[in-house]
Amino acid sequence: MTPAPGAAKVSPPVELHWDPEGIPPFPAVALKALNLMSGTDTSLIELCNLIRSDPAFSMAVLKVANSPLVAFPKNVSSVLQASMLLGFLRLRRVVVTVGLKSYFENSFSLLIRSCWRHSVACAIVAERSAKWSSLDDEFGYTAGILHDIGRVALATFMPDAYARVLKRGVDRPEDLLMVERELCGIDHCEAGRSLVGAWNLPGSFLEVTACHHEREVRPPGTASLIPPSCELADALGFSVIHCRSPRSYADILADFPERARNRFPTKAEELAFEITNEIKVIESV
Q: What is the pTM (predicted TM-score) of this model?
């Protein structure tokens, strides 16, 4: 049909292709914090100096140090004081959390907000289960925060395509990757793995970002806690994609090491309430 004279021409939709080099970089201070993995006193001073060079991170670290999350008995008034009181590992965790929050806030839509809350909920669950299992709880938290960075990038870079993923929903969590590949050309696990390389993140995050939807074959150590922590975050109400046939709270707990499994509240509502309160504190920073 010939368009009427003067009618506006409708441009065909632009098809986007995944390009990790075109994704906005993770905040430089947070990236450097992730790469300071030795945990020595020298690293603490180096990380402290990095934070002090960035006014936004300095303010955020001071807010965290004076928040109920830390509950120091006296007011913390300097980044150096906060660094010494928090210690290297905890300080690094704060910086990565603040970095992710600032990365999200550039486009804080309802979808991105859901991604943020899911990531924090996963991090809290992973941290607790690692601590109860005598594993590296600081790495557990950081891995939980970053496990879904590929989905954040897809939702930011391809918002229309990812909106169609949301609309379709899935029957089971493992079906999500197939739907993403169909509608976005890549799934969020593959996207996350490519971002780890593009951003020069430590190699320990490769399996975390790429394999957190695999229940059958899991990486060893603390990284093995990310898949059940991710699924438990969904079950507690911190999901991004609607799952029509979710597993029960009790079934998911069975995937955790026994020592951790026995420490979780018996009721899902109790754990969800605890995590919601912690997220609210983090969001207020």
A: 0.85
